[in-house]
Amino acid sequence: MGVKLEVFRMTVYLTFPVAMFWISNQAEWFESYVIQRKRELWPPEKEGQRQELEEFKERMRKQREEKLLCAAQQSS
25 — phi, psi (to 5°)? Predict the structure, then answer.
């Protein structure tokens, strides 16, 4: 009984990682599941969103510079 159990356990220990490696390296599965899931989680950005973000960053940078400039002028 003990030897048969050990052979079964060793078979499971070796089969599981090999099977997972084989399944995860299937190109069709990768394309259909992983790429689709990535696109659902992080959709491609729209050009308007990027431009709006850049404008916001520029406004924040200007406000910070003006604040630092006022603080420097008041301290001197």
Answer: -100, 15
Residue owning tokens 């696109």: 39
Q: Which residue has the higher pLDDT, 26 or 55?
A: 55
* Rounded average pLDDT over 23-42: 82
The CA radius of gyration of the chain, in Å to the nearest whole number, is 29
Q: Quick one: CA dihedral 58, 59, 65, 68, positive or negative?
A: negative
Confidence of residue 55 (pLDDT cuts 50, 70, 90): very high
d(CA 52, CA 58): 10
For tokens 């924040």, name the residue.
Answer: 60
How far the first Cα of the chain sits from its last, in Å, is: 89
- Residue 65 CA to residue 63 CA, distance in Å, equals 5
